[in-house]
Specification:
Shape: globular
Order of helices and strands: HHHHHHHHHHHHHH
Structural class: mainly alpha
Low-confidence stretches: 31-36, 305-310
Number of helices: 14
Largest sheet: none
Strand content: under 5%
Mean pLDDT: 85
Amino acid sequence: KRHQGLNTWFGGTFHRGHSLHQRVSGIMDNKIAAATGANSKLQVAALIVPLLVALFIVVRGSHVKSFFTFTETAPWVWEMTAMGYMMKVAIDQLDTVKGYYWAHGVFSVALMAFGGGFLAPLIVAHSPVPLVEETYVWMVVVAWYVTVHVPRVSQFLVEMNKSKTGRVMFIVFFAIFKTNQIVGGCELGASAVPAEALLPHSRYFRMPWAAPLLCGFLSGCGGGLVLDKDQGLSGGKWSIRASFFAPVFYYVTTRIFGVEKLNAKLATCLIRVISDLFPTPRDQVVGRMTTVGYRLTGFQKATILPVKGK
């Protein structure tokens, strides 16, 4: 009887434990299924939203030239483009600034977004661009906040940046704004030197070259040069190379070949978009060009330095 009682007790305990295990497993399965379903919905939304953004831009009556040259006057298209750029920068800096004190975080994102907008004008004694167009400052603050401190929005933005349509959307917004920064820096340097009244002008150069190219270069990668301690001016990053090629291309086409400025800006932007959409062919072409350049000049070849923590 004692033996039968023990068997009964152990059997009941086993069945109760098994039942509890089934319940826990069912709850976990339901949670996993719900999470999977939520992720699927998030992925679908991440694919659809960029298409809706593109449709909105078209419906608003935006034109190709004005859109890609950042001169669009259709309602909300300019704001959407600028905000898209700020969001892209904030997403790219998310892992870096996530644990930062808030002031450090927002300053880092802002510096990556338009650090060159401070450096380039200061070189030629002009007001920094973000202080003249103050909208940029508040846009980057909003982008930093929702990306770092609003988890659901942050998760959606990261997922959208991974999707095919989202990647294209952010690349286009980034290229438009970055080209506008570089071209603006070129024109700022080109106009600042002739306007100088206190110092004598160059004896040999009727048209300035150093100031426009330097301002254009810094406008494209000034923030990265300050924050990127691992690579800096190593030359191995596409952002550095693009910031060098773009002002040279724009300034040569407009000043030497007489191309209309807005057309040259459009061409510069489209080249940047195509280059960012197809990085492998881009790197192959640029690699061959730079190899020839290094051989002809004897310069040391650029090497991509390892980035800590990656």
